[in-house]
């Protein structure tokens, strides 16, 4: 076996550290470095690099030298915090978090509260004065480890205590969670590496065209406890609204919770105003940090945070996943704010996103007399009609259906990709279902209440995820006019100046090639041959990115279409790739 001597590359905080390579340390650790360099409060951490992940798969296990690196990293955390990993006084617990170079929210594993065992639980109880808190930490960790490391498939979330979680794990996989924290740590790092090749991660990368050998770094970070007391909690803040793009804080807060509670959707948190009411000074500090990260990042940010006994800690900041509508609004507004130039704004909006915006909407008056079956939080706008299914496998087998779940998890992603819309009983606007649906630009309504799955499965419904309502049957829709949208108009104006291609309904320059006049048998999966010397093309096939690329490569000067902006953006993207 080969030996690489430095898998533990980055230590946070390190006042002397230069900007790390995102490819090496992953986006999560890079964001910690960035926040720490701005003077913001983050729990100390160290990072196992993506090189270690590559070596893990090449060698079939943790590579030589990595175990020693993990010990060195933990010793650093112990020294900074005056705590001991596995100690019976002032114990140190850590989170073990994945982090690829390209953000893949929720697709890989994170294990919280690692380092807990019976002795550590007793030490936490003595230190906090709250045996119930210590027992809850132990129960949570046992469940995380049993599910993500040992592969237990039983539902462990609602079991009342550690003993019942242990029994469920043993009954399912006939294994026990080790008491040795070092054994826990090594196995957890390996499990996070393995999660980079999970079914859900593979499906996500395939959908977004992300390289399949990307791997992941692993961030090992000192725990802060949002579930410690009434002055503690956890939340997610978007610096701009990820649904419509308006310049306003958008987020949720859960008192006495950990981050997994918010993201999983199993608990519905409260609006961010709840934090303001409980801790106005912490809320102000959070908004000031968010504004700085937004300005420094020159983009809308998705920020995870924890409050421990009234003290704010930032855990991650990354460019926010957003709907197509939000992408357009944010790009235009950043130009107005003087943060980016129009050319950069055009690179932040894709042709597919514009096509999403131009999807039909419920026709005026059509919903007035329609039966509303359920309603909830409009998490990702859009309209979709289809038959309701209640498993991701059924959704994958029936593309275009409506996937309805109690809540979604990363294991549902393949079904979410196939579904035309997603509806959940539980969760809020920052839950897994909401975030992933926004990334997919799939209509999504969350928090519709208990019994939603049972009442909808098998029915044909229309989901209006702009209003948060689900209607019985199929409702009529109407087309959207892009010329009436001021943001789209401005993007179109900038795009026309960025490419010589003429696009519109009245741009025909002879000779013209009209693909729509070809016999159906000549329009298979391959693009039609464009005759030499053609100056203009028309037809639906030339409005898609592949058709735009083919037209440009053939030297055409104009494309005839009613929707101009998606074609212009596809042309600009092609020029960018080939120049």
UniProtKB/TrEMBL annotation:
Q: What is the recorded name of this protein?
A: Pyruvate, phosphate dikinase
A Pfam entry, by short name: PPDK_N
Where in this chain does the record put each PEP-utilising enzyme mobile domain?
Answer: 398-468
Where in the sequence is the signal peptide annotated? none
Tell me the PANTHER family matching this sequence.
Answer: PHOSPHOENOLPYRUVATE DIKINASE-RELATED, PYRUVATE, PHOSPHATE DIKINASE 1, CHLOROPLASTIC
Top-level division of the source organism's lineage: Bacteria
Q: Which residues form the Pyruvate phosphate dikinase AMP/ATP-binding domain?
A: 67-271
> Which Gene3D superfamilies is this protein grouped with?
1.20.80.30, ATP-grasp fold, A domain, ATP-grasp fold, B domain, Phosphohistidine domain, Pyruvate Phosphate Dikinase, domain 2
Q: Which GO terms describe its molecular function?
A: ATP binding; kinase activity; pyruvate, phosphate dikinase activity
User: What UniProt keywords are attached to this protein's entry?
Assistant: Kinase, Plasmid, Pyruvate, Transferase
Q: Looking at the keywords, is Transferase present?
A: yes
Entries under NCBIfam families matching the protein: PRK05878.1
